[in-house]
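Input record (one chain):
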Amino acid sequence: MPKIKLTELSSEYDVTFKEAVEIVKEKIPEDYISGKGKNTWISEEGQEIIKEGLFIDEIIPKNYIGKVLGLCPNPRYSFVYSKEIGKRVPVMIPKTLKGIYIGKNINFEAIEDVSGTSYRHVKKK
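The corresponding structure, as predicted from the sequence alone:
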């Protein structure tokens, strides 16, 4: 599946182009978006996120890409630095993958609730 223009996606999902741009910039990592204005393209990975229900605001959490720096004191978490967030955050990693991702880039998502924001690893498809 090659890159696709955001104008095509917005017409496919019956959303105005302006709304589509705002949603995509808010929910999809910058690495998956290229171009400006009406010439905005979405990569294959970004299209997968959109197909999961991106245009339904409440369901899909914000996705990020970051580099794993090391393990946290709690072995279920690893410290990850994301340029988009601008700081190091603890990300929940599956127990079987503990320590494997150190020094590598991973996808993760932010989950916001009453107590604050937490982050968890998202498997690439």
